[in-house]
Amino acid sequence: MKRILIVGALAFATVAPALAADLPPPMAPPPRAPAAYIPAAPIFSWTGFYIGLNAGGGFGSSNWTPVAGTISNFDVSGPMAGGQIGGNYQIGQFVIGAEGDIDWQNYRGATGAGICAPAVIGGCAVASSWIATVRGRAGFAVDRALLYITGGGAFTNIKPSTGALPYGGGSEPGWTAGGGVEYAITDNWTAKVEYLYASFQKATCNTGSCSVGNLFNPPVGPATVGLTENIVRAGVNYKF
């Protein structure tokens, strides 16, 4: 019996390697699944044309120089609303562009009786019903946020009068400068807040609107009337 077991063991040891060589090789492990590809978000570009709306208010002062003598400034203020159109071009993080706007405004102010000049009973008043600007813009973009400065020409109507007389004056040119911040809410819609300072050429108020005076007091007209305005407004733009 022992001989049979020994002979069997020797036979298995001789045949087993040959049988193992005839077996197929083990299957390779399945490859790992590639990591999910997440595309990088595109960098926002400010390049393009836009159109939009704005609203806010203005505050400033008016200075009169009548024949009767120079008076002190008096305050002027009022709301405004309008629209703008413009375009930007981005170079790296720098953005240059131009913008034009026109706004309706109810910009008014007046002095009390007797303060304007000795010849005036009802005081002096000034009003403006619109303002427009044409400006260049230059800014620095941080992705969707744009910080910018701006400046250019400004235009408005300066309407002065004294007492109950009708308004005189007319449209006057000037200049404006300021700055703001704009943020891209989506790829097409942006929102902005800006400040502008505007100063205008002095208007002339003739005697028909600025008192003809009397025997004891010289007339106020013709008088020169200055106007300045600080503009604070917010707006939205649609970028094409």
In N-to-C order, the SSE pattern is: HEEEEEEEE
Low-pLDDT ranges: none
Largest sheet: 8 strands, antiparallel, barrel
Number of helical elements: 1
Q: Give the helix/strand class.
A: mainly beta
Could you explain how this protein is built, in words?
The protein is mainly β. It has one domain (48-239): Porin (Beta Barrel). It is built from one helix and eight strands; from the N terminus they run αββββββββ. An eight-stranded antiparallel barrel has the order 1-2-3-4-5-6-7-8. The radius of gyration is 40 Å and the shape is rod-shaped. The protein starts with a helix and ends with a strand.
Quick tags:
rod-shaped; mainly beta; 8-stranded antiparallel beta barrel; Porin; single chain; 9% helix; 240 residues
